[in-house]
Design a protein that fits this description.
single chain, about 170 residues, alpha/beta, 6-stranded parallel β-sheet, 6 strands, about 25% helix, about 15% strand, globular
Length: about 170
Amino acid sequence: CEALRFGYLRGLQPPLVKARDPAAVIRVVVLCDYEQTSNTKMLRLLERCAASIGDRAVFTVKPHPNLPVQSRDYTGISFDISTGFLPDLLPAFDVAYASNMTSAAVDAYCAGLRVIIMLDDTGLNFSPLRCWPAIRFVTRPDELAAAILAPLSSTSAFVFSSPRPRL
């Protein structure tokens, strides 16, 4: 049934390349999972790279509808929480940081965001974007910070006619 929610992507137009001031704050949406352990790992990794990111990025956490996230549990990073619908939410962001199991990363990629996916070192990579070259996979705080702070112009634009990569 989850594939049905992607129906709205059919009418999506290719994203326009956004003209951005390189000094502007990077807006990051954190796309959480339905598993608490995955969310905890993602947000702890974000906390561990917060000092190297400083005030160059702002974060909004989008919890899975069935698993709320409490900001008080992650005092090492400041973030807002949004429960809005992805199609309405994503245009406000530059970068998406997701778990390797959430299909919300596909929404973010199709919306033209740079996508960063946390690889869980205790399991397999279940990301639906695992073979796409434009996707950044991270396991360490320094990798996550570098992926978030990379120039936005380095993002590969989504091409709707691209063939599916070989798995």
